[in-house]
Fold:
Amino acid sequence: MPVTHIKNNFKAPECDGDILAVNDLHFSYPDGHSALHGVSLKLCEGDKVALVGPNGAGKSTLMLHLNGILGGKGEVEIAGMRLNRDNLPAIRAQVGLVFQNPDDQLFSPTVFEDVAFGPLHMGLPEDEVRARVEAALDAVRMTSYRDRLSHHLSVGEKKRIAIATVLSMNPSLLVLDEPSAGLDPRARRTLINLLRDLPITMLVSTHDMKLVEELFPRTIVMDEGKVVADGLTMDILKDEALLNAHGLEKP
Amino acid sequence: MHFDAFDRYHDKESFLHRLDPRVKVVVTIVFILSNALLPDGAWLAFLTAWLFLLLANHLSKLGLGYSLKRSIIALPFALIAITVLFSIPGNPLTTLRFITWDFTITDAGLLRFVSILIRSWLSVQMAILLVAVTRFPDIIHALEHLRVPAVLTTIIAFLYRYLFVLTDEVFRLLRARESRSAAAIGTRSGGGVFWRAKVAGNMAGQLFLRSYERSDRIYNAMIARGYAGHLYTLNPHEMKSRDYYVTAFAVLIIFLMQVIGRF
Structure:
């Protein structure tokens, strides 16, 4: 049964998209499966935005477009730069993408090497790399884990290190894919506090509606490759018809 | 769940632990090469090599018998050399009869076989000690410093990182099969041999597919952080004068072993 998209009356906060502007993005996977049908959204400095929607709505696909890992039809603009082949390296330094499974994100033998990976590939001098690694580990409160081996960490620790691996690039936009999935309550709480305190623009895909309510003033709802609602979280969470239509639950 | 079965590093504060990893890697390789080059039946040289190994064991503070205990696991591999017992011409010692074939053990064959056994046993012990006193990432750094091609060191590093993830995956698959390997009351569990082989084959295929897709996600995570075909690392190691002395000392002893073994 096709989902009938309810016309929504939420007004997105006024914003000209100085950090992220996506305009009419379309994408189909090579096997013909079509994932995005004209997605448009804007993010401004300091926004903390939740991206919700059922599995298969296109959230992860959208995220992979934000630093050019996937390239669909349409426009993506990061911090005023139009994403294209030439400025891909610059864009990747601007967008910190944290994948859902930290085992995919942490591929170096030690924590230090993983956090240093981004800055080193940006071609920064050694002192600067070390300073950034220290600052990033400090931001996620994992300084003492510097020399640990990644495969010996718990899931919660891995998640925080995974966030540090992109913070060390000083991105202007943090993009997280389901950060609270698979965490126990304490690790989840630590993560929530961490995300709240990070002074950085972020777009977070999640199924954790409690997290959305607690942390993000603005929510974007996606379904079937489209943005179906974009507005204040408190308004969206009030609209049970909208939530039900897109397989979401009130927290 | 962690499987530390492959992690042989023992954290201790010792002379060997503090040495630069390059020194340890080079000395280990030279030691193994030297063992391979020693002539058959150079007993005195083998003894010197063993004493050198004991000294290294002692300096590692892991106990004199540390590498000996762990080397036994590698001994079966030396049995591959068993054919030299029969294939080297020399004075026959005894003949074994196996169905219709006669196998004659010669004195030269026995000498070579025992020598190979000792050589491999000494070499394996040194390698075991190297891994016990050097963190694995440090060994990779040492190889990078020693100009081993980046492709090789990168493959080793990834292998090391994902071995653990892969074993976890295998154990999850095995457990999932186990928990559904039920039997109706009164029947025997598990179908025919072919059916079970098919299941095992499917599991191997699953594992390959999962690893393949994971490699895709890892690669995405790498390019998301600026990877463009070349890996950069910071190597915090620095050779101190002590490291040079130790290298010179060890290489000199190994050279003496060769002299003892040949004259």
